[in-house]
Amino acid sequence: MFPHIHIDPPTMPRSGEPPHERLAAALPLAGTPGQAYVERRGITLAIADAAGMRFDPDWNGRPAVLIGMYEREARLTSLHGRYLETRRGQDKMFTIGPGGGVAASGAGWRCEPMILVEGIFDVLSLAVCGWDSVATVGRWAPWLPEACSGRSVWLAFDANAPGEREVAHYIQHLPRSTTHRLLPPAHCKDWNTALIKRGPAALTRWLRESLQARATTSR
Hints:
This protein has about 220 residues and is of the alpha/beta class. Helices cover about 30% and strands about 20% of the residues. It is built from 8 helices and 9 strands.
């Protein structure tokens, strides 16, 4: 059983638009509130653009930055949105599509080393430091075990109890991979927190040293 179950609507509520139509209608980040939002989180416009991030002023009622989630052969399966502002009782995110995909930077699931993270801003934060990675966004892509077969996989999920549950899940479901735990720096729940608190130069050093030091330790 996956640590948490997400049942996403297949299309946009009210309009019925599927993920590919909604992504095509989204705006480039430049000059939008989405640009200011990602830059506040330590992400440059160039990094966000390279990852395919876009802006939607009315993502199920609120402005959000969007990123596509893709299956193994690069077919769009879902569209994930992170709201720019969240008030008490509101969701931080909203996703549409049938699932089975991941969000990624650079080489995607072909990246070496293979680093799995939780959220889209974890992917972008590692990209700032020069590392490609794959975000599961708390969802299971059934093709991942085959794609990861025979490879070393770094499980870089959040440094909290839900993150550890995800680590346990992936260790169990990637039986043909060598798995390693990769944690963000101390007192940082996730990689975007680390980027903001430590800065890109310090986080880049942390990643390089952690990957080198722990490469021989598997779980």
